[in-house]
Amino acid sequence: MRTSLNVPSDVLEEFDETWQEQGMESRSRAVREAMQEYVERHTTLASIDGDAVAALAFDYEHTLVIGDLHTVQHEYQDVIGTTQHLHHGDWCLETVFCTGDAGRIRELVHALRDFDAVGRVNVMFLQPTG
């Protein structure tokens, strides 16, 4: 199936450099692999049930969203054990360590992804226990 995408030129340039350095045969192959990894990552997030331990890492533009992020973190204090924060200019990197109901952790991930000023949210379930 053919499809088209709108991709900023700097992102496409970096993507092309990456798949070529990896020795892949084509951009199409690299896009298919990236899409499969995306599906697998989100399927895993959706499939964990019961108690779980997770680390969430996300980057964000500090001045645009810090107050809202604090509000979200307070709303999910039942699953957030601790956080770690790193400043890098106007952008910050935050790691949130969670334990508790996987559904609540999943809700937290979705809440973080709702902010335009959050660049990306990566999730690693360390030990599904339920």
Assembly classification: single chain
- Report how far apart the termini are: 39 Å
What is the number of independent domains?
2
What would you say the CATH architecture of the largest domain is? 2-Layer Sandwich
Class from helix and strand fractions:
alpha+beta
Overall radius of gyration: 17 Å
Could you please describe the fold and organization of this structure?
The chain is an alpha+beta fold. The chain has two domains: 9-44; 49-125, Alpha-Beta Plaits. Helices cover 46% and strands 30% of the residues. The protein contains four helices and four strands; from the N terminus they run ααβαββαβ. The protein has helices at 9-21, 27-47, 62-75, 102-113, and strands at residues 51-61, 80-88, 91-101, 118-125. Strands 2-3-1-4 form a four-stranded antiparallel beta sheet. A hairpin with a 2-residue loop joins β2 and β3.
